[in-house]
Design goal:
four-stranded antiparallel β-sheet; single chain; alpha+beta; 2 domains; two-stranded antiparallel sheet; elongated; metalloendopeptidase activity; 416 residues; hydrolase; Pdz3 Domain
Length: 416
């Protein structure tokens, strides 16, 4: 029940975000005097509506977004009534049209920033000092987290009958113990623990020194056998190596909370990191298409593949079911930020495409004026329709792939 509640709650949050996106367009357009005739949440048949002034507001039957109708978005629009010619959007200065068209993305950014600021003051934002690279992780003290079993190879799965139980657990070690030696060899970091284990014969008995609650002690256990590549070459050949059945507990907390003032700076840094990550993610979208197809056709789902709103809602449901509200909020923040950036791409029919055309027209008019030539006028949107259809087709196929992958082989953060 909590999983279903989380899915619905996250989907509702995105619906509200998209509705506010359209409200951003509407409010800025009205502020400049443009005529807005319709503002609806959802698509399809109208369930309920009312008219106030010149604008009809309402709710439609398919809750998959929303829209607002601004009269005369392009010179080719035929929705301008007699007497409203001066209120057609395309007749307004380019800076006003830019504000109106970017208001949707600005709304998403504002939601992401505000949610991040609230998160910074409550459960916290990701700790910038937390180790992220492999080298940083291996330099951490060998504070262990017991695993339920030792998997026989590099393929990740849940423990099954017949898997070797954790040798560390059999030796009486506990979560939070810090390993200080293995067969007399001093252990000062998690990387040294891995290196020393690889030099130990699989299946042999090992003497382990450890510290618990400030007290040093030793214990013995029979090491398990698993298959791993060389530590310094993850793509190298796998061989039989010793395993202790432990993971690492990082010494630095994953999240850090701040006061209201300090949260402003932390939020700024967090959003900056997210902007950089989003830019990299957009650049890598094309190369992720084969991975999505692999996931759809029965292969393993790559955790780094894109997800749709459906997949994000599933992850939101998992977060709520596991009482991990910080993950729920982080998903909401990242998805809003990504939508905001994506909508500003200079491609029709995205908002960024309309902005790019408006500034292209302005630049072209400036150049022609300097050349003492007649203004070439406005861009003919009808001539751009083939390119628009191509963008819609590619976007539709990509959306279909991500939704299908999220349904048949979803990314999961928790065991359900």
């Amino acid at each position: 029940m909590s999983f279903a509640f989380g899915v619905v709650l996250f989907a509702l949050g995105i619906l509200v975000s998209v509705s506010l996106h359209e409200a951003g367009h509407m409010l800025t357009a009205k502020a400049f005097g443009m005529k807005v005739t319709r503002y609806f949440v959802g698509f399809g048949p109208t369930l309920w509506s009312f008219k106030r002034g010149e604008t009809e507001y309402g709710i439609k039957g398919i809750p998959l977004g929303g829209f607002c109708k601004i009269v005369g978005m392009t010179p080719q629009d035929d929705d301008v009534e007699p007497g409203d010619e001066k209120r057609a959007m395309w007749r307004y200065p380019v800076w006003k049209r830019t504000i109106v068209m970017s208001a949707g993305s600005v709304t998403h950014f504002a939601l992401a920033i505000f949610a991040a600021w609230l998160a910074a003051m409550t459960f916290g934002l990701p700790n910038p000092d937390r180790p992220t690279t492999e080298a940083q992780v291996r330099a951490e003290p060998a504070v262990i987290a017991l695993q339920n079993c030792v998997l026989p190879d590099t393929t990740y799965r849940e423990c099954a009958a017949g898997d070797t139980a954790s040798p560390a657990a059999a030796a009486g070690l506990r979560n939070g113990d810090r390993i200080t030696s293995l067969n007399g060899t001093p252990i000062n970091s998690y990387g040294e623990l891995l290196t020393t284990l690889r030099a130990t014969t699989p299946g042999s008995t090992a003497t382990i020194g450890y510290v618990r609650d400030g007290q040093s002690s030793t214990t013995e256990t029979v090491l398990a056998t698993t298959k791993r590549p060389p530590i310094d070459n993850p793509d190298g050949p796998v061989t039989d190596v010793s395993a202790l059945g432990v993971g690492l507990i990082l010494s630095t907390p994953g999240l850090v909370s701040y006061g209201p003032v300090e949260a402003v700076g932390a939020t700024s840094d967090f959003i900056g990191d997210m902007a950089e990550a989003t830019a990299h993610a957009l650049q890598r979208l094309p190369e992720k298409i084969p991975a999505l197809w692999t996931a759809i056709t029965g292969g393993e789902r790559d955790m780094d593949t894109p997800i749709s709103v459906v997949g994000a809602s599933i992850l939101g449901g998992e977060a709520v079911a596991n009482d991990a509200w910080e993950i729920f909020v982080m998903l909401f923040i990242s998805l809003n930020f990504f939508i905001g950036v994506f909508n500003l791409l200079p491609l029709l029919p995205l908002d960024g495409g309309h902005i790019a055309i408006a500034w292209f027209e302005r630049a072209r008019s400036w150049v022609y004026a300097r050349l003492r030539r007649p203004d070439p006028g406005r861009v003919d949107y009808f001539k751009l329709m083939p390119f628009t259809y191509v963008v819609i087709l590619i976007g539709g196929v990509f959306t279909l792939l991500t939704i299908t992958a999220d349904v048949v082989n979803p990314i999961t953060l928790f065991t359900r």
